[in-house]
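Lab notebook: predicted structure, single chain.

Context: the supervisor wants predicted structures on file for every construct in the current expression panel, including those that have not yet been purified. This is the next one on the list. No modifications to the sequence; it matches the entry in the shared construct table.
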Amino acid sequence: MNLITLTDPRSPVSEAYRTLRTNLSFYSLDQPITTLVVTSPAPNEGKSTTIANLAVTMAQSGRRTILVDCDLRRPSLHEVFGVSNDVGLTTMILDEEQPPALRETGVDNLWLLPSGPKPPNPADLLGSRQVDRVIERLSDQADMILIDAPPVIGVTDAVVLGVKVDGVLLVISAGETRREHAERAKELLEKANVRIIGAALTNAPRETTINGYYE
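Prediction complete. Output recorded below exactly as produced.
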């Protein structure tokens, strides 16, 4: 996974992430987004790359940002930032007295809460009241909480998490995401009254990256 916002901050792709950050910031001035789930219709569509780079740009703008890996089935953010996954979200859920297992990322204003050990029942765990309390605790320490969730189709995790936050950003991969998958994901989220705030297009042709990144 490439954190291009760090390796090539002047590239058009990095600028696209900053454009996405700006659009999210101005999405609703009356009710600012402070907790956001990022997911995709199906696997391998770039959701984790998107949320990691978005988190970097959020932090670079001066906002205290906590990135939470809620993909308890295929966690990857601890590998991106080179930190341990021995403790994290799951250990916080099971022991509410434990302080948040936040990890420094090497980026000012950005911390990572890894997934922690994989549980046998991810959807049940994510739907618990304990997760609401974890989000509340983290919100006291940050300006923005970004949550990486599993793909919408196939498992209920993203929908379960979506009802707990201000909104959901759906990542669509150009040339990869099937139209029927995107429509199905939208249908599943809307059926649960999840607030879909928009879609981020990944894998776009270079010449349309900036203008077509956020819709």
